[in-house]
Write a structure and sequence with these properties.
Elements: E1 13-18, E2 21-26, H1 35-41, E3 43-46, E4 49-52, E5 55-56, H2 62-74, E6 81-84, H3 87-101, H4 105-110, E7 114-117, H5 118-121
Parallel strand pairs: 6-7
Antiparallel strand pairs: 1-2, 3-4, 4-5
Amino acid sequence: MNTGDNRRCDIIQLVAISGDHTFNRYMMPQVAIDRGATAVTGFRVHNGKLFQNGRAMNTAILTEALTSFLDFLRSLEQPVLLAAHGARRFDIPVLDRALFRCSFTKEFQGLDSRFLDTLQLS
């Protein structure tokens, strides 16, 4: 994960909350996590395992995590508003690439979900 260039970033954690419903999955990154990102997020990889703040995390394969995420979004009242801080510069491009890589772009677009960038609100 390189915080300066999102083109090389992977999704490590995918979280969504709607009322009492929560989705949370961790994935093993395919690229090294740089020191700056580890300092901010607490994520690091050691001996083929993902850790956050020293605690080993159970990880899913990207395709499985995205399938579960799409199922979670489908279970919610539509359209869904996805909020993220810095979404336009970071979250949207990284998620779009992951969806494309797993051939889920059309499925995601079919949900008519929208993004709210909380950075623009602050």
